[in-house]
Write a structure and sequence with these properties.
single chain; 310 residues; alpha/beta; four-stranded mixed beta sheet; 14 strands; 37% helix; globular
Length: 310
């Protein structure tokens, strides 16, 4: 049998690009090993079966790579669908769902009983990792009633809340046990009411309370556009002050995401990223490749960031 020269063997090794891809991830693995990453799961990634499966694979990959992923989720499309089935109206004021007591019952049922359970199941196909909970559990999230503002006037929108306190002990205990917490964005107030919480806001607040290295928000756009709708160019990176200047110009759907990112980096979270959840494995592309995707928000005093490395 004739043996090819070593140089020819290397040229013909079609698996070599895979090794190079793995090596490209090495600096990011070193940078983020042992760090907590809070991920807000939402958008198309929540309703497309292949995207849900890819998301679960990404989160478990983070866990095996030595990071500590924590998932916070909402469930707007699923809630609206269930309300329609029950003949209940879905209405919004300033982008916030008007939440009657009947609607709140559906919110709790869908978030904790449907969306969370499905995600926990997908994650646990890869090992005994995921544990579901809500912001009500162990007083993890405490909320107060939130009002919408229309034409300068407060408008009562029902059982919608803002987070005023995070007790992260239960989440930290799960992380210490090697688990992946999956948290529904529901919170209880000190007077016993249960409130519907914006999942972007909840994820940002939890990232701060956990001292997370990174907040990741999955959405249905490529990132923060520089001049939408005139251009679809995505801002790859910006500082906190730059983002603050842009906030008044943002659409209602993007506003809570970017406000959450701003609050997170100004409260000690290393970076905050907005990614396109319609792209399979967007989490891994952002965290473990040189180019990264989406928009990254960094503190004002942060030096220039290349790719996923801060």
């Amino acid at each position: 049998m004739q043996i090819a020269p070593k140089g020819e063997q290397a040229r013909n090794n079609t698996a070599l690009p895979k090794a190079l891809t793995l090596i490209e991830a090495l600096p990011w693995l070193e940078r983020f090993h042992g760090k907590t990453v809070v991920i807000k799961f939402g958008g198309n990634a929540m309703v497309d079966e292949s995207l849900k499966a890819a998301f679960a694979q990404d989160v478990v990959f983070l866990r095996y790579a030595g990071l500590h992923p924590v998932v916070v989720h909402g469930g707007g499309p699923q809630i609206s669908a269930q309300l329609a089935k029950l003949g209940l109206e879905s209405s919004f004021t300033n982008g916030l769902r008007v939440t009657t007591p009947e609607t709140m019952d559906v919110v709790r049922m869908v978030l904790a009983g449907q969306v969370q359970r499905e995600l926990v199941g997908l994650l646990n196909e890869h090992g005994p990792f995921a544990v579901g909970m809500t912001g009500e559990d162990a007083h993890t999230m405490t909320a107060v009633k939130r009002y919408a503002v229309v034409d300068g006037e407060q408008v009562d929108i029902g059982l919608v809340g803002d987070i005023v306190n995070i007790e992260a002990g239960a989440v930290k205990a799960l992380i210490a046990d090697g688990r992946i917490p999956v948290i529904s964005s529901i919170a209880r107030s000190t007077d016993g009411h249960v409130y519907n919480i914006n999942a972007d806001t909840a994820a940002a607040a939890l990232a701060v309370a956990l001292g997370a290295e990174m907040l990741v928000v999955l959405t249905d756009v490529e990132g923060l556009y520089a001049d939408w709708p005139k251009s679809d160019d995505v801002i790859s990176q910006l500082g906190a002050s730059e983002l603050e200047e842009l906030l008044p110009t943002l659409a209602s759907g993007m506003l809570p995401k970017m406000e959450g990112c701003l609050n997170a980096v100004r409260s000690g979270v290393g970076t905050a990223r907005v990614l396109d959840g319609r792209v399979q494995h967007s989490l891994l592309l952002e965290i473990f490749t040189d180019e990264g995707i989406g928009t990254m928000v960094v503190p004002d005093d942060e030096t220039t960031v290349i790719g996923g490395l801060a």
